Amino acid sequence: MSDPMSARAIRAAGLSAAETAEAVISMIQAKEPDIRAWAHFDAEAVRAQAAELDARPERGPLHGVPVGVKDVINTKDMPTQHNSARYLGSLPGVDAACVDTLRHAGALIVGKTVTTEFAFTARGSVTRNPHDLSRTPGGSSSGSGAAVAAGMASLALGTQTGGSTIRPASYTGVWGWKPTWNAISREGLKMYSATCDTLGLYAREAADFEILAEVFNFFPLEDLPHTLAGLRVGFARTPTWDACEPSVVVAMEKAAGLLESAGAVVSDLDLAGPFDRIHEAHRAILDCEGRSAVLNEVRTTPGIHDEFVAKVENRQGETPESLREAYRLADDCRGHFDDIASGYDIVMTPSATSEAPVGLESTGNPAMNSMWTVLQVPVVSAPGLVGPVGMPIGVSFVARRYEDRRAIAVAKLAGAAFAEGLAAAA
């Protein structure tokens, strides 16, 4: 059954932007005091925007679909504040390329969602997990994942440099997509790492990612699967598998079993050898590129958090030699993964190391995500599984670079299988 808040359902119902605006405003007014997902929201501005959309002579594919935008992404009519006192009330006056594209497609930009400071840190934010207010929704795209999970937006934009899109998707039980690196322009997004920074997307249905793939002009692919039967799935227990808590290990085994019951052929995918050092390479690259990214902030902002100062001061002790080796290893692993993944239809791996942790001090462990980010491959996290305390656990489906539509198609099929398995167990 289609989710009434999904982009597909809104389009199918032929709703006006004014109708969706009123629905989302009511939802935000009811839920935001508890969830705290929004860094900026102006109901009257949303109504005015909806009226402008409804006055257009033609409807775009996202007409009136409510979208949240992470507050490190520029918007022409709303502040972009990066969760930083230095940028309080800052109005860039221009949309990021991704926001511009969404507006052209008819999207209703609802507001700016909470981020950790500069989308740089694992220090927590004020946003709470809609499934349990005592738990983090993850981060750094904290507000985006929570807003979609709570029905306060149909779609939302995040970013990922480590695990900032996929981990919140897992924690909040929504669909998350980290596209192929640079397949969506990152013009107008706060910079951290040119090698790893990637726009991320959240949705309430996998079908909405199919719409977004059209809006953002992703490569069309032939031979996309329409059934799990016969699908070759590589189960990747990555070099950080030991970081997974028992709840995730059990959930992944269950996911594999459900895929096999639907006819998929699931086999272990060994990512040893150079991949054993890929997380170290990711850290080194972030140390290098983060050092230049926040230099101006450290030089001009008295009292800035020591985490940023540590980057600028290179306290990890990176050298030109160690950085060249990190970049070389990442390059080698990208080609190596393309070769390995060509023997499968899709790769399956955990979206997070655990269910959403209790507390808001930290956004959680990105150990299951950073490898895929530095490899620059597309990842789609499918919800549908739950852990022992009833919190969501996502499963990531990974494809080769530029095969985003394949990852979406397989995740959509897998998500349906997970939902059926959950219903059967209820």
From TrEMBL:
InterPro entries reported in the protein's UniProt record: Amidase, Amidase_dom, AS_sf
Gene Ontology MF, one: catalytic activity
Domain of life: Bacteria
Domain Amidase: 20-406
Gene3D superfamilies named in the record: Amidase signature (AS) domain (3.90.1300.10)
Ranges annotated as spanning the membrane: none
Coiled-coil parts of chain: none
Alphabetical list of PANTHER family matching this protein: GLUTAMYL-TRNA(GLN) AMIDOTRANSFERASE SUBUNIT A, TRANSAMIDASE
Protein known as: Amidase domain-containing protein
Origin species: Marinibacterium profundimaris
